[in-house]
Structure formats: C-alpha cells, structure tokens
Write a structure and sequence with these properties.
6 helices; 62% helix; 3% strand; globular
C-alpha cells in the first residue's frame, strides 16, 4: 500500500511540474487578484512542508534548520521577492528527490518510531509515517488546486 502512496505523490508532483513548465517566470511570480501567494509559492511550499512533516514533526529531526528554504515557504509565509529560473529548476528537482529520500529512509526503517502530531490544516492526529504520507498527498493536491485556480485568474486577466 505504501508503495502506491509514494507513486501517487510522485505522479501528482510530476503533474504540478508540468503546470510549472507551461508558465513563464513572470506568471509563476505573479500574485493574482484574490490570492496572497503565487503559483511558485504553492509549489515550493509542498516541497518544504513534506520534509518538515516527515522529519521534524515526527521527531526524526530536532528542528527544520537542515531543510533548505523552510523560512521562505513554511506555513503562513508569503512571497517576498521574485524567484529566478535557477530556483524554479532546483525546486522541480527537489520535488522529486526529496520524496525519493523519504522513500529510501522509509525502506531503511528510519520512521519506525515517530512522535504523533496534528496539523492545523486537517486537525487529524497522525501517529505513523503512512498517515503522514496520506496527508502529504492530500496537501500536495490542495496546493496544486490553488495553483490551477491561480493560473486561470492569471490567464483570464490578459
């Protein structure tokens, strides 16, 4: 079952990457009317959040200091600058390699003992890494949906 969850996460992230690839850097950086963030922020947020949920909130890591870009894309942040194409390319890679790393660590048993926690978004206590992965898939697709809505607003405003 868990293998299928990893496959679904990778598949949905590849779909999000296709969306990113279909947009200009200007469109990725634009904050559409009615939103407080942009398409790139939604994409980067899922990458950072999954690492935080999987490693920090479960007690595997003591804090998020080793997770790159946490301060820029964690919950309750907003874009403060335009991103570069190099950053977009890096996040497209991180979106997949970080899931590969979580899957590798899962296979090694790194997550056999985790600290239960609840997220503000769903309010459901997650006691296992499998529950975290299901929440990740849901969270990823929530933000992909926001990004699709943002694309529609951006493209309709031209």
């Amino acid at each position: 079952m868990t293998q299928h969850i990893f496959e679904f996460i990778i598949s949905s992230r590849k779909g999000f990457i296709r969306l990113i690839d279909d947009l200009s850097l200007e469109e990725l950086n634009q904050i559409p009317d009615g939103f407080n963030n942009n398409i790139f922020w939604n994409f980067a947020h899922i990458v950072v959040s999954t690492q935080t949920l999987s490693y920090v909130r479960t007690g595997i890591l003591a804090d998020s200091s080793t997770i790159k870009y946490t301060d820029d894309y964690k919950k309750d942040t907003k874009p403060t600058r335009n991103v570069t194409q190099e950053e977009v390319d890096e996040f497209k890679s991180l979106a997949l390699t970080t899931i590969d790393q979580i899957q590798s660590d899962y296979a090694k048993g790194i997550f056999n003992s985790t600290t239960p926690y609840s997220t503000a978004t769903y309010g459901f206590e997650m006691k296992t890494i499998e529950e975290v992965l299901v929440a990740t898939l849901s969270h990823d697709n929530l933000h992909w949906g926001y990004a699709l809505a943002q694309r529609k607003v951006i493209r309709n405003s031209k």
